[in-house]
Amino acid sequence: MTILIVAEHDFIGAAMAQRFADRGCQHISYPLAELPEGKALVSFLSEQQVTQVINSSLVSLPAAQLPGYLQQGPLLSLLTAVEQLQLPYIQLSSSHVFNSAEPRRYKVSDLAEPDTELGQIYRRVESYTRKHVQRYIILRTGALFSERGDNVLTHLLAQFKQGGDISLSLHGHSAPVYMDDLARVVSGLVDQLGCGTDEWGVNVWGEYHYNSSDPTTYYHFAESLLAVMAQHINIEQVNLVGVEAPDNSWQYPLLNCSKILSAFGIKQMPWRSSVVNVVKRYCKEVVDE
Length: 289
What we know:
Number of domains: 1
Helix content: 40-55%
Number of strands: 12
Low-confidence stretches: none
Distance between the termini: 39 Å
Structural class: alpha/beta
Order of helices and strands: EHEHEHHHEEHEEHEEHEHEEHH
CATH architecture: 3-Layer(aba) Sandwich
């Protein structure tokens, strides 16, 4: 069994590849643009003995590059090859497909009505997936953080390192997900899909939600990070300032995750449980350099 991870060279693809490597699972990883197209891709997947495909490129790319993602060449080629070979396909997506102004947890059955251009792109890719692939899982998630790469956590920790006043939003709640936790979830899906879901007697294909179990504001997320970082650097010059203005980097609608629990037994984890280790690793790899 070989798992193909379609991802950019970033912290998202790296975390998933590391998860499978730690478990001794055969996997290969390529950015979408570097995969062959057409019949060559079908041959490539067959030669590599790929049995499942995970596409995280949609949540890996910077927002400015996402409009180009909808150019149907590489994506259509991938979906066509997956369908031809009848491979299970996991497409990572985002809670941005829902309206961020609604203060509730969205269920899988709720209508996707994005209020942002970014959300509209996610919704269109989801629709494209449903149109071209039968055996798919669309996994929506929230704000992702890691000690590596460019994300909400490394952005905050870099500001802490510089010191001074840091204004952060007290408006709205998000349920951020540590990237290693999301890799755990995806790995759990892969394991169970590999057990022959067609023989379960139930239809497991469709949309699922996963975000952490403890929603918080951007300000209080930063406050928790700062408390841990104080153990590694001098933070006397850091002053967190709470403001009422919303912050787009934190505007992720909350998700109801009951379906993934009932279908796959995957439980939510609190983001707070990862903070000590992730900040420690960041300080070791970045601050101490």
